Amino acid sequence: QVRLVESGGGLVQPGGSLRLSCVVFGSDRGIYPTQWHRQPPGKEREWVATIAAPGYKTFAAAVKGRASISGDSAKNTVSLELNDLKPEDTGVYYCTREGNWGQGTQVTVSS
Question: Which letter, b or e, does each residue of 15-26 get, where b requires 16 or more Cβ atoms within 10 Å of its Cβ?
Answer without folding.
Answer: ebebebbbbbee
